[in-house]
Amino acid sequence: MIITSLLDTDLYKFSMMQVVLHHFPAAQVQYRYQCRTPNIDLHPYIDEIRDEVKALCQLRFTEDELNYLRQLRFIKSDFVDFLGLFHLPERCISIEYGDKPGELAIEVEGPWLHTILFEIPVLAIINEVYFRNTQPEPDWAEGRRRLQEKMRWVTEDPELTDFKVAEYGTRRRFSKKWHNEVVVTMKEQMGNHFAGTSNVWLAKQHEVLPLGTMAHEYLQACQALGPRLRDSQVFAFETWAKEYRGDLGIALSDVYGLDAFLADFDMYFCKLFDGARHDSGDPFVWGERLLAHYQQNRVDPRTKTLIFSDGLTIPKAIELAKHFAGRCKVSFGIGTNLTNDLGYEPLQVVMKMVRCNGQPVAKVSDTPGKTMCDDPAYLAYLRQVFHLPEHVESE
């Protein structure tokens, strides 16, 4: 088995799941898988993937795992009690051959509360099955050499005393074994530069900090769950604040593009949230605009944290850290470039929410080329409501 624990996923799945339990327990959703890497043939491995997912659906949280979650300050006891009864429902996921050569058609459909934990382990399974078949004898030495080089760029630069990087690479990792080695190595060799990991199982195993707040699916679902579409982003942030009372205060900024985010992120949210996370568009432009926005709302940017997590590499993170040094707090989440950099092309696989309560949902990105909305009429309506330009792509 690839996945041996339901904790082997990203922390923000649990933080969002708790909100779903307390605020949207009846919500019904649909997720759809997509591989953006061209000419990838997964057909030979479909039975292997199905077997791994079947095993995933047999897993339960152990008492030890539940006790670990209870110790996290923002996790509430009734949520842990619910997880004690939880398992992923196999009937809610279908894995079939896709329409195009080599493509898989994977869909998850059912109650949000019971299906939210599918995404990350399913993507990790697809990656590991693919790479263990196509690279049966991986070049671990090359992977270690690359990792050492990345760490040296940070640890040997005297200007980077406050530089912090977190590992965010569960969904696109080369393998669980390599993912574990990356976290262990970074913990041992980077000292205070290593902020932690998004992976809860590895955080527990190696006593490092689990990190994460919200993902795009949360704000997307609120398009269907809020009072009206135009207020959906405000509704999402207010519901989050009601649940966490100021904790887990990093807002995701790119579900409707930066202009729409800043229009909704008023003085109240500027003061209430600890900062924001960048995940599409030019990170330097985003950071400058956010700092100016804080100043316009009479908030000292130096008290706020900007988290960068969009396809980062260590050199890009260092460049950003030096650019914003002394003007705000910064932190970096690096995924694929840490957990799948052994010299082979990583798979660009995603599994996105496409419907909630029967209604289409979409993410409108500041980065072109990430379209994943199955209803052009809804997308046109969304653009109109949020005054979005036509060139902004959806996901």
Explain this structure.
- Its EC number is 6.3.4.21.
- Keywords: Glycosyltransferase, Ligase, Phosphoprotein, Pyridine nucleotide biosynthesis, Transferase.
- One of its GO terms (molecular function) is glycosyltransferase activity.
- The modification Phosphohistidine is found at residue 216.
- This is Nicotinate phosphoribosyltransferase.
- By secondary structure, the chain is of the alpha/beta class.
- The chain folds into 2 domains: 11-136 and 345-385, nicotinate phosphoribosyltransferase (Alpha-Beta Barrel), CATH 3.20.140; 142-213 and 249-339, Alpha-Beta Barrel (nicotinate phosphoribosyltransferase), CATH 3.20.140.10.
- 43% of the residues lie in helices and 14% in strands.
- The protein is built from 17 helices and 11 strands.
- It has helices at 11-23, 46-56, 63-70, 77-83, 112-115, 119-134, 140-155, 176-190, 200-206, 216-225, 232-244, 258-264, 267-272, 283-296, 314-323, 336-339, 376-385; strands at 28-35, 93-97, 104-111, 165-167, 194-197, 250-252, 275-278, 305-308, 329-334, 349-356, 359-360.
- The protein has a 6-stranded parallel sheet with strand order 5-4-9-8-7-6.
- Strand 8, helix 15 and strand 9 (329-334) form a beta-alpha-beta unit.
- Helix 2 runs antiparallel to helix 6, helix 3 runs antiparallel to helix 4 (77-83) and helix 7 (140-155) packs parallel to helix 8 (176-190).
- The longest helix has 16 residues, at 119-134.
- It is globular, with a radius of gyration of 20 Å.
- The mean pLDDT is 96.
